[in-house]
Structures are given as C-alpha cells and as structure tokens.
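New to this. Help decode the following:
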Amino acid sequence: MKNVLFGASALAMITSGAFADVTIGNPMAMTGPIPDLNAPIAAAVDLAAKSVNEQGGMFKSGEMLNIIRADSACDPTAAVDAVTKLINVSNVAAIVGPVCSGATIAQAESVSIPAGVVTLSVSASSPAISTMEDGTDLVFRAAASDAYQGVALAELAIEKGYMDMAVSYANDDYNAAIAAVFVDAYTAAGGTVTANEAHEPSKASYRSEVATLGSTSDNLALFAYYGSGGITVMRNALETAAFSNFIGADGMLSDEVIEQIGAENMGGVTFTTSASDPTTEAYAAWSAVAEAGGVPAADPFVPNGYDAAFMMALAIEKAGTADRGAIAAALREISSAPGEIILPGEWAKAKEILAAGGDINYEGGAGNQDFDENGDVAGLFSKSEVVDGAWVAELIK
C-alpha cells in the first residue's frame, strides 16, 4: 500500500508542476525458483540508489532516487502483473529488471514496450531478447546474451573431455534457449548429443526422465533453475548413479545446490555464469562500494544489478528529466565513448560533468556496458566448481 500511495503522490506532484522524486520500477524474483540468487542482486540495486542519494541526488534540486520493488517471481504472468502496476499505478520513469528471461520478455511485449517505457534487465540472458523489440529501442540488458554463454559452456565441455552428453532443459524461455545454443555449439565442436529432452519444471520426481537420459551417456548438460526442478534432477541422477558429470549455467549456481546435494557429491559438477574481470579499475571501484554496502561483490549478476540501476539514474540525469521518452537515447550516451570515464560509486563526479554539459562513459563492475544495436552488452563468463564445500569461480579466458 505504501508504494501505491507514493506512486499516486508522485503523479500528483508531476502534474502540478512541482519537483518530484525520481522513481524507478524494480521487478525482481523475490519468490519463485531463485530467491537466493535474487536477494543480493536486489541489494545491489538498492546500493546504487544509495550512491545517488548520498552524493547529491537527482538534478539541480537534489531529488531522491526511489526504487519501487515488485515481485516478478521469475514468472511471465507475475511479471506482467507487477510491471503493469509499476507503470500504471506507481508511474515509474523506467524499469530496472526483471531477473529472468521469460519474465522480461512477457512484461516487455505486453506492458513496457506498448507504454513506451525503457526496460534495462539486470540478468535476463535469453538470445530471443536481442530481436524481440522490432526497432523500438526500449529493451536493454546489463548481462551478456546466452548466445555467448552457451558457446563458452560447449567449449568447456570439450575441454573437459566430455565428447558425448545427454541434455535436459526446463521448458521455459531461458533454459530452452541456452540449451539450444549449447547443443549447436557442442556438436559443431565435435561433441555428440546422445539425448536432448525438455522437462517440465517443479515435478516431485524426474526418475523416469533421468533413467532414459542416463542410458545414453555418463555426462549430463542440465539447464534448469535450482528451485524449480534442477536440484531434484541432480538428486535423482545421483541416487540412481545415472550420471557422474554435470555441467550447466547460472540457473543452477546457488549455495542451496550444495546444501541439498552435499558437497561430497559435487566433484563432477561445473556451472558457468556471467562474470567480471577482477583486474580492472572498474571492478576495484565496484568491490569497494559493495564492501562498504555489505553486498557480495562477486555473486552472480550482483555487479550487473548495481550497474543497471546506476546507469538508469545516469541516463535520467543526462536527459534532465524523468520523462519516459528521453531515457533510451540518454542510456546509450552515458554508457559509451566519447566521455570521461565514470566508475561505480562516482555519482557526484558524473553529476558535475553532466551539469557542465560534458559527456560521460560509464564502465561498470560487470564490465564494459556499451550497448549494441539490440541493447546487448558483451560479457565474460566464469566456471564454478565446489572446493572445500563452497563454490569457487575461475574466469574463462
């Protein structure tokens, strides 16, 4: 109720001509299959708003940047409902989020694009997002497409000597898309896919599926969310000794997997995710901001969450208005050359340069944030394996 009241009061202030705080909508997967992955990403979004508000706020009068959060639940229907309220009731200037690809696609097609509102997802990575907008330039993302991660994962499988693999993927936008990319890249590199089957999320048991797949290979490429079937598939596979080796992507990269499966059973498990280069000046700046704010700097998509919220604020500051129609062009301008480099946490510096009519180029903790014609960014990936009971990540070169 508080958020709705704020949205209504903000709208009244705008229509009356008075100064109003800037509001950004933040649909996140607070419930659903990945709440543990979501929580630190949401904290990073809040940390970006804190950076803005503690260093002068928005515009000349120092208006507050407010994040209005809603639960998109990693679900297309929930995302449409959440973003409809954010746009039509809370009157947000832009959307930072959602987390999941299916939720991002559904809300964009049904709500944000028709409303002319920019979406900047923190982590949605389905290749389908690259071409969904049809030239409207209203959908961006701060994480690399799985068109690249699927290839990196295929190369990793070959490097590990897995020359034949069964593939199981959850029947949703994210997992089906990255599985397709993986299969194409893996077979092109000389690997043999022995079976390639979809599974429905959130079943109580996958023993029959595992038995069928396990008869074809000792290696499983598993594309699923840990909280909606992924852990169960792994448990069933280990209980029946169907597979010895598992690879997969971000949807499975959670401490809950270790807790549920047991670290002693994770010796043949490798998952990939978007990653940052820890040797860059931008990452060092982000790490300092994250440490001061009590946010885990290196967790999956956490720097992306900060970058997305910080860039959206920079774009609105650059535009000089929270008018929805001015944000997309400004988002491209603040994130690419020419311009003075702005690092995570450097809001006051950016604000001063923009106020003087200068140009800025934001370099994020997640890496370079130059958007291509599809609103995509390039990215790096890491591989994570369990060592001494915890995930240990290594950048894939």
About this structure: The mean pLDDT is 93. The two ends are 48 Å apart (CA to CA).
